[in-house]
Amino acid sequence: MSEPSSLSRRGAAPFSAFERTVAWRYLRAKKAEGGVSLITTISFIGIMLAVAVMIIVMSVMNGYRDKIFEIMMGSQGHIFVQTTGVDTEEIEPLRQRLAKLNHVTSARSMVVGQAAALSNRGGDAALAVVFGIKPEDLRDIPLVADKLVEGDLDQFGQGRKGGNEIVIGVQMARKFGISVGDDLKLLSFSSSNMTPFGSSPRSKLYRVGAIFEMGLADYDGAFIYMPLTQAELFFSRGGRPDYIEIRVDDPFNTIPIRLEIARAAAVPILIDDWKDRNRTYVTALKVERMLMRMILMLIIAIAVMNIISGLVMLVKNKSRDIAILRTMGASRGAAMRIFIMAGAAIGGLGTLAGLVLGILFAIYIDPIQDAIQWAFAIFNPGERLFDAEVYELARLPAKVEWSEVMVIAGFGFVMSILVTLPPSWRASRLDPVEALRYE
Predict the structure, then answer these.
(1) Do 53 and 123 fall into the same domain?
(2) 0.90 exceeded by pTM
(3) Domain span at residue 158?
C-alpha cells in the first residue's frame, strides 16, 4: 500500500504555504474556471476608493482646522485680561508685570470696537471690527506685518494723537474697490457727537496705509487695525484700553497660565482666552470632525461588504474543490482559513492602494486644486470654483496625520477580515459527500 500523503496524514499547518497558494489561486481564477474576478475587482476598487476618500477628507479637515487655528491665534491674543475695575494708572504696571511671567511671550494693551465702514466710491456699508494697537505691537504680528499685499507700516501711528492711517484686509479693499492712499469712513455707534439736532454716530475719514491678507475671508473682510491712541479717542475710551492681550508659548494649555496671571495681578480681574471667545466655532469643528470620521468609516464598511458577495459565489463555485480537499485530509479549519485569506487579500491590497492614493492626493493637493480650477474655468469663464468668500480659505490645506492614517488602515483591514467569516464558515461546514454526490 502506498504511503499516505502528508496532507492526509497530519494536515497542513495553519496559514501554511499550501493554504496561501490555494487562496491566491482562487482569487486569480477566471470566470470559465469558476472564479469571480469581476466581483473581486469591484471589491478591490471600492475599498481602495473608500479608504482614499477617508484619508483625503480627514487630511483636508485637519489642514483646515490647523489653518483656522493658526490664523485665529496668530491675529489675536491667547489670553485676555479685562481692565474693568482696574484703575487707569494701574493698567500699564499690570501689563508690565504680566509680560514678565513664565510662558508669556508678549502682553499688549488693546482697544476693540465695532464700526461701520463706508467708501466714497459707493457700495453698501460693511461691519468692521476695529483693533486699537500700538505701532510696535502691530509690527510684531506676523499675520499682518508679513502678509502685506500693498503698502507698509512706516507711517502707522505717526502724527497727532496717532494719526489717521489704518490697515485693512484685502477682502474689504476689494469690496470697496480701494487701495493704499484711498480714504475710508468709519462710523462708531458706541460713541456719538452732539449736534443741534441731537446725538449722531461718530464718524471720521481715515487713510488706508496698508492692506493685509491673512488667508481667512472673515478676517480679511472685517478686521481693521488703528493706532491705540486714535482708537481710544474714536471709541471714547478716555485714554483707557479695553483689555491686555497676552500671548503664550502654548495656546492649547492656557489654564495654568491663567492661574499665574490671576495671582500676579494682585487686583480683581476678569480673564478669558481664545477658546472661550471662539467656543462655538471650536466645538463645531470638533463635532464636525467626529461625525465626518464616523460617516466615512461607514462608507468603508459598506465597500468592504462587496467581499461577502464575492466569497459567497466563490464558495459556491468551488464546492467541488473544497470537497476534494476535505477527502484528501484538509480540516474544516483549513477550508475556512483559505477563504479568510482570499477575502483578507482583497481588503488588504485595496486598503494599501487606498492609502497610497489618499496620501499622494493630500500631499499634492495644491497642483490638483489648480488643475480642477483650470478645468472649471474653461466651462465657466470668470468664475472661481474655490471662492475664498464662500469657503473662507482661498486654498484647500491638507495635513496628513499618520496616527489617523494607521487607524484608517487598521479599520479597513480588520473589517475585511470580519466580513469574510460568514462565507468562510459556510465553506468549512460543507459536507464532502453531499458536494460530490452528483459529480
Answers:
(1) no
(2) no
(3) 108-238
The rounded distance, in Å, linking the Cα atoms of 387 and 381 is 14
Gyration radius of the chain over CA positions:
33
Residues 297 and 368 in one domain: yes
pLDDT per residue as tens digits for the range 312-349: 777 777 777 777 777 776 777 777 788 888 888 888 88
Q: How many domains does the chain have?
A: 2
pLDDT at 70: 86
pLDDT tens column, 371-391: 888 887 777 776 776 666 656
- Are 54 and 409 in contact by the 8 Å Cβ rule? The answer is no
The residues, ordered by sequence, that sit 6+ positions from 393 with a Cβ below 8 Å of its Cβ are 64, 67, 215, 216, 217
Of the candidates 250, 404, 424, the one whose C-alpha atom is nearest the C-alpha of residue 332 is 424
Low-confidence ranges of the chain (pLDDT < 50): 1-10, 33-34, 195-198
